[in-house]
Design brief:
Blueprint (H helix, E strand, L loop, with lengths): L1 H14 L3 E4 H7 L9 E5 L1 H10 L4 E9 L3 E10 L2 E13 L2 E2 L11 E5 L2 E5 L2 H6 L2 H7 L14
Parallel strand pairs: 2-5
Antiparallel strand pairs: 1-2, 3-4, 4-5, 5-6, 7-8
Amino acid sequence: MIKALLTIAKTLEPAGVRWAVTASAGLALQGVDVSPADLDINTDKRGAYEIAMLFKERVVTPVGYRRSPRYRSHFGELEIEGVKVEIMGNLRVFGGGRWSPARSPANRKIARIDVEGVSIPVVPITLLKRTGYLRERIDKGKGPAKKVKERRG
């Protein structure tokens, strides 16, 4: 997964795409004991389509506006270095009887983690807690209830 992440970073950063790793991969990068099955990339609408264009030979599901009862975003899937990569542009989440505002690195705080000398943008643990992502993972038995801590140092 690290090889895929580095490939993504080395392509997106020079292109000026606003992006951040989120969900379980973002938690793992911040020291949480989880085993991500894929890489989830949060971006804005323009970024979602630009990422798909930059990795056009690796597109599994073309980016398009998708809706479900729980999520809305400009969503697509790639396969990079054998890893499933989900792109979510302007992600909106339904909770508490309403839709969240569009979420992207343009309108949320992003942290940076060094991975093999490459700076990787990630959605901070504190923000994932506030948005309910961690609570959902714990409720579904997929999260590390008592192990969720921010890495210090």
